[in-house]
C-alpha cells in the first residue's frame, strides 16, 4: 500500500471516540468571519476550515444487501469571492436504469458578518438541480447563496450506494489549504478492502474495531412434503466486528496546478478502497479482486462493448467492400477517413454506449466509445488486424495497471497492426491522422484487449510536432521589418494550423485573425499548400513592428524577431511530479536580417548550445555573419514527452537559457 501505512496504531473504543468530529454544523464564530487571510498561505482565495468524510455500510432489509453510505461535511472560508468554484457543489452519481445511487440530507448555509452579527443565508431546496451527464451518470448541483469576501460556507450531504465494491477517492489535499480533515471508513470484518493512496504527504492512520450486529430476514420452506410448500419467516442475528479506519490530517498545504501535468488528482494526497473479498459465515468465500484478463472477458462478453465489434451495419457495407481488396495499410486509411469524416464526437466518454451505434450511424453523432468501437468493427471486416485499447483519459490521471479496476477505465481507441508495426487510431478528432491521438487519449499505460486476454502495455506518446521557419527580413525607412517567410508545419502542428485555417474560411479572413492576435503584424499575402504526410507549407509576406528600435546612431533588432520562447513555464522552486508534454516537438527557425545601408554590425548574440540529460532535449542558438547580412539559427527540441521530476532543475535552466537567447539583440551602428 503505497504511502498508506505510515503509522498504524490499534486503539480502544475510548481512544477512538476521543477523536470525534472537531467541528459541528452551524458553529461559526465572529473571529472566523473577521479573518482576512489564511495564517499559512496568505494569498489563498479560500481555505477549508474543516472537512469530514464518513463512510460506513448499512444493511437494507428491503433490498437484502449492505449499502455504502457516504456522509460529507465541509466548512470553507472565502477570502476572495471572485473564485466561486468552492461555492458551487457538484455531487457525481452512478445512475443506471436500476440500482441507482442517490443523494439526500443536503444542507448548506452561508454565514456573513453584518452589523457585528452573524447572518445566515440558507440554501433553498428549489435551488438543488439534477443533471443527466450520460446514460449511467448524473450530477446533483447546488450553489451556496449570498457568498461574499469574508463569507464562511458549510454544507453536508449523504450518498447512498448499492455499490460496495469501491469507496471513491477522498482527497486530503486541494487547491486551497485545509486546516483539518477527519476521514472514517467502517466495514464488517467479513469484507476485506485494499487501500490505494496517492500523493507524497504522510497520512496518520489509526485502526480499531467495534462490536456490531446485523439481522437478516428471509423465508424458507419448512415443509417435509415435497408436494407442499410451507414458507416460514426467519430473523437471524449475526454478530461481527466493525473494522474502523480513521485518518486525520492537520494544516494540509494546497497543491497548485503547474504547466504540463496530466491530472493533479494523481499527485494530490488522497485515498480510496477497493473490495478484495467477502467471507460471511456459512457462505462461500468470494474473491472480487480482478485481473486484466477477467476485465477483458467481461468487456468481451458485454453487449455494449465486445459484442458491438461483431455486429453488421449495412450502411458500412460499401466502404468495407471497397477496402477488402486493398492492402491493409490502404484499407486502414480508407476506413479511418470514412469514420472520421462521417461521424462527429459529442464530447462524452466512457466504455459503454449511450444512445448506441445505430443512433450514431443514423444521426452522425455519438460518444468516443461508439465512434471508436464502430471504427474497430469496420476495420476488422475490411481485413485489418486491430484491437481495442482501454485506458483513462489524460485528465482523469495516470492509469495504475498494478490494480486492475474496471471502473478506472473510461476511454477506448484502436491499435492496428500493419507490417508488424502498431498504429494507434482514434476517429473522434477530425484533424488528426492515423498514428496520432487526441490529447485526451494519451496516457502512460493502457490495456490491449485480445479477445479474453487483457495485456498491459506502456504507451509511448505517438504525437510529434514540428515547425521549420525561414524568415528573410529587411529594414525599411520607418525601421519596420519587411519579412518574407517560408514555413513548414508537420505532425500535430500541421493539424492545429489546418484546423485554424479551415475555420477562418478564406485567406483574407485568416490574415485578419493573425493580425488581430498580433497587432505588430500587417500581412500582404499568405499562400497555404498541403504537403506530404499531412504537412502544411506556407509562404507569407508581412511588415513587422516592435522588433526593431533606433537609439541614437544604433539600430537594435530582436535576434529571432519575436519567435522562440518568451517565458519559462517552470517557475516553482521544486516539482514533485513528472512533466507531461502533449507531444515531442521540434522548432527550427532561421532568421536572416539584411544589414541596412549605411550601417555596420556592432554586435551579435553569442553562440549557445544546451542539452538536457539523456538527450531528452536540445537547444541551440547559432549566429553567423554573411555578406551583407546576419543569420541566426535557433533550434528547440523536446525528444522525451515525459520527464521525471529528478531532472526538474536541468529543465528550468534549459528554458532559462532559451528565454534569455530569445530576447537578445543584433546591434547595427552607423558607419563613420
Describe it:
The chain is an alpha+beta fold. The chain folds into 3 domains: 8-26 and 47-287, Sandwich (Immunoglobulin-like); 292-458, Roll (C8orf32 fold), CATH 3.10.620; 464-670, Jelly Rolls (Sandwich). The strands form 8 sheets. The chain has a 9-stranded mixed sheet with strand order 1-13-14-11-2-3-9-5-6. An 8-stranded mixed sheet has the order 26-27-25-24-31-35-34-33. It has a 5-stranded antiparallel sheet with strand order 21-20-19-22-23. α4 runs antiparallel to α5 (328-342). The longest helix is centred in the middle third of the chain and has 15 residues, at 328-342. The chain is globular, with a radius of gyration of 31 Å. The model is unreliable at 1-21 (pLDDT under 50).
Amino acid at each position: 500500500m503505497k504511502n498508506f501505512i505510515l503509522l498504524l496504531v490499534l486503539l480502544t473504543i475510548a481512544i477512538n471516540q476521543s477523536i470525534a468530529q472537531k467541528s459541528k454544523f452551524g458553529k461559526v464564530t465572529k473571529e472566523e468571519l473577521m479573518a482576512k487571510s489564511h495564517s499559512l498561505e496568505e494569498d489563498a482565495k479560500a481555505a477549508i476550515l474543516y472537512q469530514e468524510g464518513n463512510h460506513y455500510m448499512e444493511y437494507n432489509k428491503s433490498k437484502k444487501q449492505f449499502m455504502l453510505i457516504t456522509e460529507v461535511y465541509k466548512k470553507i472560508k472565502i477570502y476572495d469571492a471572485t473564485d466561486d468554484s468552492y461555492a458551487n457543489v457538484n455531487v457525481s452519481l452512478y445512475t443506471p436504469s436500476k440500482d441507482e445511487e442517490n443523494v439526500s440530507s443536503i444542507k448548506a448555509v452561508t454565514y456573513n458578518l453584518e452589523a457585528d452579527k452573524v447572518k445566515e443565508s440558507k440554501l433553498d431546496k428549489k435551488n438543488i438541480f439534477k443533471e443527466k451527464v450520460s446514460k449511467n451518470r448524473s450530477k446533483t448541483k447546488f450553489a451556496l447563496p449570498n457568498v461574499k469576501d469574508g463569507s464562511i460556507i458549510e454544507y453536508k450531504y449523504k450518498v447512498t450506494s448499492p455499490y460496495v465494491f469501491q469507496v471513491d477517492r477522498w482527497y486530503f489535499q486541494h487547491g486551497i489549504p485545509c486546516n483539518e480533515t477527519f476521514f472514517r471508513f467502517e466495514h464488517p470484518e467479513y469484507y476485506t478492502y485494499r487501500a490505494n493512496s496517492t500523493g507524497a504527504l504522510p497520512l496518520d492512520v489509526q485502526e480499531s474495531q467495534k462490536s456490531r450486529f446485523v439481522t437478516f430476514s428471509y423465508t424458507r420452506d419448512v415443509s417435509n412434503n415435497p408436494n407442499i410448500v410451507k414458507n416460514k419467516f426467519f430473523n437471524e442475528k449475526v454478530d461481527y466486528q466493525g473494522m474502523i479506519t480513521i485518518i486525520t490530517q492537520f494544516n494540509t498545504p494546497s497543491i497548485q496546478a503547474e504547466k504540463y501535468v496530466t491530472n493533479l488528482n494523481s499527485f494530490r494526497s488522497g485515498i480510496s478502497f477497493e473490495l478484495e473479498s467477502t467471507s460471511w459465515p456459512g457462505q462461500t468465500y468470494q474473491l472480487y479482486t480482478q485481473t486484466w484478463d477477467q476485465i477483458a472477458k467481461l468487456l468481451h462478453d458485454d453487449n455494449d462493448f465486445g459484442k458491438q465489434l461483431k455486429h453488421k451495419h449495412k450502411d458500412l457495407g460499401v466502404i468495407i467492400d471497397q477496402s477488402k481488396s486493398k492492402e491493409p495499410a490502404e484499407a486502414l486509411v480508407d476506413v479511418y477517413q470514412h469514420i472520421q469524416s462521417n461521424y462527429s464526437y459529442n464530447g462524452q466518454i466512457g466504455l459503454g454506449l449511450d444512445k448506441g451505434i445505430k443512433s450514431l450511424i443514423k444521426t452522425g453523432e455519438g460518444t468516443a466509445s461508439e465512434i471508436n468501437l464502430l471504427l474497430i468493427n469496420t476495420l476488422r471486416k475490411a481485413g485489418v488486424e486491430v484491437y481495442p485499447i482501454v485506458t483513462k483519459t489524460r485528465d482523469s490521471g495516470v492509469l495504475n495497471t498494478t490494480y486492475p479496476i474496471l471502473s478506472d477505465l473510461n476511454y477506448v481507441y484502436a491499435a492496428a497492426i500493419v507490417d508488424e508495426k502498431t498504429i494507434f487510431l482514434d476517429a473522434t478528432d477530425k484533424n488528426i491522422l492515423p498514428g496520432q491521438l487526441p490529447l485526451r487519449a494519451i496516457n502512460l499505460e493502457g490495456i490491449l484487449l485480445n479477445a479474453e486476454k487483457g495485456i498491459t502495455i506502456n504507451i509511448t506518446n505517438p504525437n510529434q510536432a514540428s515547425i521549420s521557419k525561414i524568415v528573410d527580413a529587411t529594414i525599411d525607412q520607418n525601421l519596420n521589418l519587411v519579412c518574407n517567410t517560408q514555413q513548414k508545419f508537420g505532425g500535430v502542428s500541421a493539424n492545429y494550423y489546418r484546423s485554424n485555417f479551415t475555420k477562418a474560411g478564406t485567406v483574407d479572413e485568416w490574415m485578419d485573425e493573425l493580425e488581430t492576435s498580433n497587432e505588430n503584424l500587417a500581412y500582404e499575402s499568405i499562400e497555404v499548400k498541403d504537403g506530404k504526410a499531412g504537412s502544411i507549407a506556407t509562404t507569407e509576406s508581412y511588415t513587422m513592428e516592435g522588433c526593431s528600435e533606433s537609439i541614437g546612431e544604433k539600430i537594435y533588432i530582436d535576434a529571432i524577431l519575436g519567435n522562440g520562447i518568451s517565458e519559462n513555464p517552470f517557475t516553482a522552486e521544486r516539482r514533485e511530479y513528472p512533466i507531461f508534454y502533449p507531444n515531442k516537438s521540434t522548432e527550427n527557425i532561421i532568421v536572416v536580417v539584411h544589414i541596412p545601408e549605411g550601417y555596420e554590425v556592432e554586435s551579435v548574440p553569442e553562440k549557445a548550445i544546451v542539452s538536457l540529460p539523456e538527450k531528452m532535449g536540445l537547444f541551440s542558438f547559432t549566429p553567423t555573419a554573411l555578406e551583407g547580412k546576419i543569420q541566426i539559427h535557433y533550434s528547440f527540441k523536446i525528444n522525451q514527452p515525459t520527464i521525471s521530476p529528478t531532472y526538474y532543475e536541468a529543465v528550468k535552466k534549459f528554458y532559462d537559457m532559451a528565454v534569455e537567447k530569445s530576447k537578445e539583440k543584433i546591434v547595427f551602428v552607423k558607419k563613420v
